[in-house]
């Protein structure tokens, strides 16, 4: 189970302010590309599941993940997640030809997709995706991820923090933002949901 605090920032100016304030705690920045798949008959989405390939930093790494049963409330997201690395060149081939994905016999996740979600002869379809620039910080005992998400219909800005004690992490984050006079709101939808709706949150 992945549990994260998700706080949305209103615009690029606010995002830059947070980035500047956190700069002493910066660890690394990743360029991510997220590509999503579903069954030809919506076998995954009909069961609130999503299959994703995430490419990092010009294909230096690729992670395949299966997420299911998302719940997001008051800025805290809970979702079942399983992930594993695959060869980036294989990942790219699967983006071009999604029928290749179920053929990756070495993948635990693809076995699950076939067995648990009944992906049949029609296989998978590629839904497209979006890009994300993620700056990672170590601050006050928390790992913060400051996201700048590029959809083809607009930009979204968010702070995420995975934590085993999300309420405490959220309190710390909210206090930090309020001290610095930074506007924010609770994220109430996932990045994937925004992508599928083609509409930025208000």
From TrEMBL:
Domain of life of the native organism: Eukaryota
InterPro entries named among the record's database cross-references: CYTH-like_dom_sf, CYTH_domain
Entries under CDD domains matching the protein: CYTH-like_Pase
TM regions (residue ranges): none
Pfam families: CYTH
GO molecular function, a single term: pyrophosphatase activity
Domain CYTH: 1-199
Protein name: CYTH domain-containing protein
């Amino acid at each position: 189970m992945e549990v994260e605090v998700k706080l949305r920032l209103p615009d690029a100016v606010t995002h830059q302010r947070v980035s500047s304030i956190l700069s002493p705690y910066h660890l690394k920045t990743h360029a991510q590309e997220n590509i999503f798949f579903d069954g030809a008959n919506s076998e995954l989405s009909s069961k609130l599941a999503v299959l994703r390939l995430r490419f990092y930093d010009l294909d230096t790494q690729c992670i395949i993940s299966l997420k299911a049963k998302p719940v997001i409330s008051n800025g805290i997201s809970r979702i079942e997640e399983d992930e594993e690395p695959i060869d980036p060149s294989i990942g790219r081939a699967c983006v071009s030809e999604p029928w290749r994905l179920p053929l990756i016999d070495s993948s635990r996740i693809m076995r699950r997709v076939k067995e648990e979600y009944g992906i049949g002869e029609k296989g998978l379809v590629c839904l497209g995706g979006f890009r994300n620039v993620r700056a990672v910080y170590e601050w006050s005992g928390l790992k913060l991820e400051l996201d700048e998400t590029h959809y083809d219909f607009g930009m979204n800005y968010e702070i995420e923090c995975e934590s085993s004690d999300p309420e405490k992490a959220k309190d710390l984050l909210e206090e930090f933002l309020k001290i610095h006079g930074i506007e924010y709101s609770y994220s109430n939808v996932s990045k994937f949901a925004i992508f599928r709706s083609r509409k930025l949150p208000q």
